[in-house]
Amino acid sequence: STGLTEDQKEFQKVALDFAAKEMAPYMAEWDEKEIFPVETMRKAAQLGFGGIYVKPDVGGSGLSRLDTSIIFEALSTGCTSTTAYMSIHNMCVWMIDTFGNEEQRHRFCPSLCSMEKFASYCLTEPGSGSDAASLLTSAQRKGDTYILNGSKAFISGGGDTDVYVVMCRTGGPGPKGISCLVLEKGMPGLSFGKKEKKVGWNSQPTRAVIFEDCVVPVSNRLGAEGQGFNIAMQGLNGGRINIASCSLGAAHASVLLAQEHLTVRKQFGEPLASNQFRLADMATRLVAARLMVRNAARALQEGREDAAVLCSMAKLFATDECFGICNQALQMHGGYGYLKDYAVQQFVRDIRVHQILEGTNEVMRMIVARNLLQG
Amino acid sequence: QAIDDDCNQTGQLLAAMLDWPQGTFASRVQLESGGVLVEREVDGGLETLRLRLPAVLTADLRLNEPRYATLPNIMKAKKKPLEVLPAADLGVPAGPPRLKVLQVQEPPPRAGGEKVESVESLLGKLRHAGRI
Q: Right CATH number for A6-117 from 1.10.287.1080, 1.10.540.10, 1.20.1250.20, 3.60.150.10?
C-alpha cells in the first residue's frame, strides 16, 4: 500500500476486509462444488464493486483505473476466480457506459452495477482466438433488427449471466466489419453449450454461446457499425490491467502463505529458513509486477498514447511473474502444497489461465513488438 | 471504556445524572414491550438485565459486526462538512481539567505459589487466607 492516497488506502482496506471475511473462507468450496457465488458478488456490488470505473449517473462508482487495480488485487486475495469474473463483468458494464447512447446506458448499466444482472464478454470463437478479427459470427441487417448466426467459445459466465456483449460481423472481413451488440438471455435463438470442466476458475461457469437466427434489435448496437472491434480492444486494455491485478492478489496471498509455512515447518532441526532468498526473490518480483500494473493503470486513466502498449506489457509481465511466484510458493509447501486442503494450489490453478485469456501472452508480445518496430 | 484514559465512566456518569438505569458492556440487546433485555459481558461471564426505558447502554465489541464502508461513501467522506463548535458555545468550560492523575503504577509482580502435601493442608491454608 505504499504510494497510495488516503482514499485508495480506504478502498484497499474495504476490499481486503471483504476478501478475508466473505471470500477466503469459501474459495475452496466454490472451487470444489463449482458454485457461482451470486449472493457474495451482489454483496460486493452493494459496496460499489459492480461498476468500479463506470460513471455514477448510471450507478457506477466513478473511480480511476488505478483505484480499480488496487481493489481487484485486494479482492483477489480472497478468491481469484470470483474476482476475475467480477473484473470481466466490470469491463462489460464500462463498454456499455462508454460506447452506449444515453438510452442504452440507462437501460443496462444500473442493474449491472448492482449485479442484479450479470454480464459476459463474447469475442472468442471456436475458429478465432488470438486472431480475433477473423471472427465469423454474422449479424445480417433486416429492417430494424440484426439476425445473428454463429457461436462463441469459452465465455466466462455464459449461460448463467443475463447480458452478453457480443462482437459480430455486420460488414466485410477484418476488424472494420465488426460491430458490437448487446444481447439478453431469453432472446429467441440464443442458447448455450455444456458447462466446461476446467482446471481452475471453477467459481465461474464457462460455456459456448450459440446464435441460431437470433433476433436482436438495432437499438442494442453499441456505437456505430464497424466500431465493434475498437470497442472490444478498448475494453480489453482495462481488462488486461484487471486480470493482471488479479494475478497480483493471488501472488501476494501465496507469498504470505509461503512465509507462514517457512516459519512453521521444521526440517533438519530448523525452520525452513534457507528458503529466505527464494522468498526475497518472490517478493521483489511481486513488487516489480505491481509497479508495472499500476503504472499502466495510470497511463490508461490519463489517456496517454503509450497506454495500450503499457497495458500489454503489464499483463504479460505480471501474469507470467505471478504464476511463477505462486508456483514457487506451492513448491515451498512441499508435499502439502499439492493437497487441496491447502489454498496455495488453488491460487496456482486459478491464475494459470491469466497467461492465456484477454489476449495470450504471445499476443501481448506481438503488440509490444509491433509498437517497437513501428515507432 | 474510553480509548484515551480507559476510565469506563462516561456511560455510568450519564446514567447517574439522568437517574436512568444502565446496561454497560452490552453484547446483546433485545427490545421488549416497555423495556430492554441487555446481556452484559462481566468478568465472570455474562449477566442479563431487564431495564425499563429510557436507559443508558454502552456497547461491547461483541455487540455487532461493523458494516463495510461503501466506495461511494468513502469518496463522499472527504466532502462532508466538518463543523467545529467551540466548547464555550455549548456552555461547557474548556478548562481547567477536573481529573487529576495522582499516580500510575504497575500491578505488583506475581508472588510465587506454594505446593501442599494433602487436601486437608490445602483447605487449612485457604481458610487461613480468608478465601473460604
A: 1.10.540.10
